[in-house]
Structure formats: C-alpha cells, structure tokens
C-alpha cells in the first residue's frame, strides 16, 4: 500500500519518532516496541460481527418458514425471490460468521458484512417510510409487530449503523490477531511478513 | 518542520525501512486466490442453504386436508354464504392479541353472524412457534367432528404464554375432553399432528396474501385496520356500514 507508506513517512518525518500504532505494528521488525492495540481491536471487531451473524443466522435457519415470511413482510422483493432469499440469506450470514471467527479473507468478509448491513438498513428505512409495521426479522421471528413504530425502527437502525461502523473499520484495517489470514498470506493488499511481527 | 522532513537522519531512516520492506514486497500474493475461494464458498453456502431449506418446506404430498367442509381460502366458516359481508380473521392460538380480540369482539361477531349480516371465516396463521401449529392442528381435528369453534374458544380462554411448552398432547386432549371429544379418532389425530402440514400451508398462503401478523382482519377481501375496530360498536359500523362494500 503505497499510500499508507507515504502517510507513514509523512507522520514520521513530521513528528520525529512518533508513529501511528498500526504503522508501527506493520512496518517495524521483530523486537521493536509493540504498544499498539489496533490488531486486538480488529480481533474484537471480528468476534463481535461473528457473534451477531451467528445469532442472526441460527434462528432463521431453525424456522425457514418464518425467515421467508419476514423477507416477504418487507414487500420489496418479487415473490419469486422471496423464498430463495429467505432460505439462502441465513446461510450467507452463517458463512460470514465462520469466516470472521476464523479470520480468513477478513477484508472481503468485513466488506460483504458492511454491504449486507447497509442493505438491511435500507430495508428498514423503506419499511418505516411506507408505514409498514413489521419488526425487522433481524434475529428470526419477524413479520408483524403491532408495537413497531419510530422507536423500534430507530433502535434497529442505530444498532445496524453501529455494526456498519465496525464492519467498515475492519474493512479498512483488517489486520488482526488470532487470524488464519496471518498464516496464509494476509488480507489482500497487505503484503504479509510472517517473520516480522506475528510470531 | 520542512527542514526536519528532509534531514539526513530521516532520509537514511527511510532508506533503511524501504530495504527492510523488500523481502516480502516481491513475494507472490496468495490472497487473491483466497478471496476467490472464500467468495465461491459463500456462494456455495447460499445455494446449499436454499436446497436444504426447500426440502424442509411443506411438501404438497404430506398435506392431509381436513375432513370437514371449509370456507373460502381453507378457513373455518360461520354463517351463510349469502350474507352480504365476508369478515375474515387470521389468527394464531398462541397470540395474546388474538385472545384479546376474541374477548372484546367475539360476542359481536357471533351476533352479526346469527343475524345474517356477516359471514365470518377464521384462517390459521400459525407463526409464533411449533405449539401454534399443534394447537391449530388439534382445533382442526376437533373441526372434523364439528367442534372447531368450541375448541377455538377453549384455546383462547386457557391461553398460556407464547412457546411456554404448555400445549402438550395431554393438554390438547384435555381441551378435547372438555368439548366432548374422547374418541380414538380425535386422540390419534392430535397425537399424529395430522393437520400440521396443512396448517403450515395455509399460513404460507396467508403470508402471500399480505398477512404479516395476527390478528389481521379482512372485510370483503380488503384489510380492515385493527385501530378502526377497537370496540364492538366500531366493528359493527365498520363491517355493516356502507352496504356490501
């Protein structure tokens, strides 16, 4: 990443010995001070998203009828797509959860997670705008919620928005501890040096 | 600051670091293949999921249709087909709001049916959990012997919290005894969950019709918003006012 290298140089040039945590983590050789928490934060982000996706997937996989009804309740997709999405989406969520837990292709998986969350948020916003009273179906169940209103929709959007921030952050800084990526070549665009700092 | 940026120390440091980064700069990256593999695996998981779940969906061959006559859309019917207004309800026997609606509006609905002003059709929309399906199946078993509505009333009157495990075979059979059903036919029907696939099918049909929750009311095929029928008087006005509509 040439841009990052330049940024690093600029910081270092301007501030003498002061370097950003991540730059230090990635660029300094073994034995250099490792004060940075960034890779551990990325690990925490991975695990948080993995738990959320698992939670989302399990209940929907357990009750495929309910998953299909929840997709249909949004009244966005044509009927022919409702069943495939209701059946397939939870497995995508489960796959993302497993990959995040393992830390494999972290950047791709974090980007897909962010994109999927944005799609869900769009669904919630349009349901809200159209006056549909549904719960989001995010974690199973789904369909109608007579009490659904501004509060419910806002709560779901704030939660999903927070998760988007986490997923985007992980897409930008996918280097993490305890990740399979560290063994097999690193996230794309991040030339990995097994000899430098992982061991 | 600018003098510092170009200081010999910084330049030397830059060179040193640049060299240090060389060993892995030219190394072939395996990541693109990992990304391709992972993307393919995710796609395969989605396809596998669709196949697995489509096999778990209701198969038309498993569906046993009720032995008794049903109204429009496979619902239980009260009243005459010649009544000017058709009122339909989609409900789940575990749904507290459905029980509340029954308490609040049930007597009015029966009175309107008896006076020939409406025909009432009850559709199962058993979506809260497995106990919803079993309760609906048992009520349909009772319907085979002409006791659907009595059984329906008992399920609501003695409703337990959702998915609490209360609706066991023993309890469903006990409700049967209380409406006079003690025979082997009813017992087998309840114990075999005979109408569960059919209930799943009609619930799916309700979902396609736009039902997303319970209770949902329709008046002559158009949804009747619950806010408009909170009291017996409002219900009476809503379903009979304005003629056949």
Commentary on this structure:
The complex is a heterodimer of chains A (199) and B (245). Chain A has 199 residues and is mainly α. Chain A is 68% helix and 2% strand. Chain A contains 9 helices and 2 strands. Chain A has helices spanning 2-15, 21-27, 38-62, 64-73, 79-102, 106-129, 150-172, 181-184, 194-198; strands at 134-135, 143-144. A two-stranded antiparallel sheet of chain A has the order 1-2. In chain A, strand 1 and strand 2 (143-144) form a beta hairpin. The two termini of chain A are 22 Å apart. Chain B is α+β, with helices and mostly antiparallel strands and 245 residues long. Chain B has helices at 2-5, 8-25, 31-56, 96-114, 130-144, 148-157, 169-178, 184-191, 196-208, 232-240; strands at 76-78, 85-91, 118-124, 216-219, 222-224. In chain B, helix 4 links the parallel strand 2 and strand 3 (118-124). In chain B, helix 5 (130-144) runs antiparallel to helix 6 (148-157), helix 5 (130-144) crosses helix 9 (196-208) and helix 7 (169-178) packs antiparallel against helix 8. Chain B is globular, with a radius of gyration of 30 Å. Chains A and B meet through helix 1, helix 4, helix 5, helix 6 and strand 2 of A and helix 2, helix 3 and helix 9 of B.
């Amino acid at each position: 990443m040439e841009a990052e290298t330049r940024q690093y140089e600029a910081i270092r040039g301007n501030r003498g010995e002061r370097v950003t945590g991540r730059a230090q983590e990635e660029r300094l050789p073994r034995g250099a001070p490792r004060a940075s928490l960034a890779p551990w934060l990325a690990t925490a982000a991975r695990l948080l998203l993995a738990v959320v996706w698992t939670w989302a997937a399990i209940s929907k996989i357990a009750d495929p009828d309910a998953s299909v009804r929840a997709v249909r309740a949004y009244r966005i997709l044509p009927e022919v797509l409702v069943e495939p999405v209701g059946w397939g989406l939870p497995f995508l969520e489960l796959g993302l959860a497993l990959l995040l837990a393992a830390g494999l292709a972290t950047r791709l998986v974090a980007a897909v997670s962010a994109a999927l969350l944005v799609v869900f948020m769009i669904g919630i916003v349009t349901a809200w705008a159209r006056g549909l009273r549904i719960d989001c179906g995010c974690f199973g169940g789904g369909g109608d919620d007579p009490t659904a209103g501004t509060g419910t929709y806002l709560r779901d959007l704030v939660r999903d928005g927070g998760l988007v921030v986490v997923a985007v952050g992980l897409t930008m800084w996918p280097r993490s501890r305890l990740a399979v990526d560290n063994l097999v070549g690193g996230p794309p665009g991040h030339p990995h040096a097994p000899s430098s700092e992982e061991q | 600051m600018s003098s510092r940026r170009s200081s010999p120390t910084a330049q030397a440091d830059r060179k040193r670091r640049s060299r240090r980064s060389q060993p892995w700069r030219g190394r072939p990256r395996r990541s693109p293949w990992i990304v391709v593999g992972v993307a393919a695996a995710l796609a395969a998981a989605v396809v596998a999921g669709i196949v697995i779940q489509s096999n778990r969906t209701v198969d038309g061959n498993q569906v046993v249709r009720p032995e008794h006559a049903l109204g429009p859309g496979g619902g239980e019917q009260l009243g005459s087909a010649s009544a000017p207004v058709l009122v339909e309800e989609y409900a789940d026997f575990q749904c507290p709001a459905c029980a509340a609606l029954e308490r609040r509006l049930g007597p009015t609905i029966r009175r309107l049916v008896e006076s020939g002003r409406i025909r009432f059709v009850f559709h199962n929309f058993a979506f809260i959990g497995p106990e919803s399906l079993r309760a609906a199946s048992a009520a349909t078993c009772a319907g085979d012997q002409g006791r659907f509505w009595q059984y329906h009333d008992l399920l609501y009157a003695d409703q337990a919290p959702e998915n609490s495990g209360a609706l066991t075979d023993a309890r469903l059979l006990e409700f049967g005894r209380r409406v006079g059903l003690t025979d082997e036919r009813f017992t087998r029907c309840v114990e075999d969950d005979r109408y569960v696939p059919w209930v799943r099918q009609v619930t799916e049909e309700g979902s396609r019709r736009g039902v997303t929750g319970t209770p949902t009311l329709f008046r002559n095929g158009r949804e009747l918003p619950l806010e408009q029928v909170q009291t017996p008087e409002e219900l009476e006005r809503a379903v009979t006012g304005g003629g056949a509509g």
